[in-house]
Protein 1
Amino acid sequence: MVLIHEKITALLEQRRLKKRDLARALGVSPQTATDICKGRSAITLPHLRNLISYFEVRAEFWLDDDRLAPIEIDQLARRGAAEALMRTGMLDIEDPQHLMERVRAFVQQQRDSFLSSFPDLTAAEQRLLGLADPESGVVGRIGGSEMGAPQATATVVSADSTHLSSAQATAGAKSAEMEGQ
């Protein structure tokens, strides 16, 4: 169990701040700041408000007794992202990592259809869904020929909205050429 005074001490050390800086931020004497850091003085609600403001870390971090250091979502600058996550219900999921693994697997099974339905995905969204090459960020599939030379696989949408591979499109075009001769 991580106590608030331990979090304060860790953040002071991490940010190379002095107890007198903390005293000024909390509006207390340097001795009281020292007592707070040692767990000898209670943290009041006004102290908590000042800690949130001073360290720019959300209240939930201070109340969470499992973590010593804040994570990105605890930063006040990321508050909008955290609130958006709350609205989606993702924070209510018991194992969000497991859910995302299932979503990624489904999206990858339906890759071509998914990408054509959502062509405006950002690079970050594509990486999250496992659609981008992690090193280059390129979206798409590259297959190898028998000789090992890379060969691009593309999807063509015909006038009647059917999806054709590049090989099918080429064969169809050659067939149409022969019929026209």
Note: The radius of gyration is 28 Å.
Protein 2
Amino acid sequence: MAEEETSESTDKKKDEPSEGFKNGQKFFGTVIALKRVIPHVTNPKIESALGKIADIYGLNEVSANVVGAFGDVVFEASSLKIETVKDVKRSVKAKYATHDIVGHKSRLEFIGLEPDEITFSMQLNRDLGVNVDMEITKLLTMLRAGEANYLILGNRAVGQGQWVLTSLTIDHKYADREGNPLYAEVDVTLKEALA
């Protein structure tokens, strides 16, 4: 009985990344954001420091596979892990005031722009190297904390600043016999966080 518990806990530890790697992923998402949001920074000392930090966390190998990030959630496609976004939609709206005029059509007055909104879907699949529970927890933590982050897709930051996670719809499709999620589909809604 004790041997089974030990082997189960060892298996779970193998599936979960180390604390250093988790911190590295979070830092790497920030580095991607900084390097892509501020492309004109060419200070060799900064580049050298970022390179050393990436070496410490072992992120140089991972970086080639990274296709984007939002906060702690790093999107990547490699032979070991596939965690990407699909159906990305951006909504841009203007705000108008309506002034009623007796006997005539109403007049519109441009007030400004609404914060942009982005929606996308993610398929989290343990068979594709994703720790489904951990990724959902990261997203829920960002939503509940009201944490603003840069959204990086491809080689650039989306929008002019950071985004907040305003809505999550999590559809748990499959779980193992212990209740651990094996596959989930997540719909994410972000809103532009303008300072």
Note: Confidence is low (pLDDT under 50) at residues 1-18, 20-24, 33-41.
Protein 3
Amino acid sequence: MFFAKRILSATVGTKLVLRYSPTPSDCRVCTNRKSTMSLTGKGEVILIIDDEECIRDSCCQVLTKAGYRVETAINGEAGLAKVREICPNIVLLDLDMPGTSGFEVMDRLNEISPGIIKVVVTGNTAVDLEKEVIRKGRALSYLAKPFSPEQLKQVVRGALDSKGVGNREYAEKSGC
């Protein structure tokens, strides 16, 4: 469902902001759905850990329609509990969250299940941060907010393909 909001500003004028907000039935229990898009999933399990509800719900909507099974968590601790429960193929993780930070979650994910693919999704676009996350091997990829649905699907599909998700060797390394 799309919502429009008109914002009046003395310095900028009037601007119209469109926001997509999935309904609760769209994402509370995400299920596989077939899609004809080129960046489709094969039922892989994706966990989104982000404290921003609009990011969780929007990513869930996009990825579910692309054929992935998607689960969400509101913070790091809830995300780690979900990892133990569902053993996802990939985790999309915000770094800046209250409580357990994304960095702590990445480190604990490596202890729980070293083979889980980690993709950082954050509004912090500092080049040093990107280098630290990827070069130190904490995450496979980095996606800066805001991003388009196509960018999200490309990063997810690329990460899954690069790790050979679905083959026997990946399943043995994932630790689940």
Note: The CA atoms of residues 39 and 106 lie 26 Å apart.
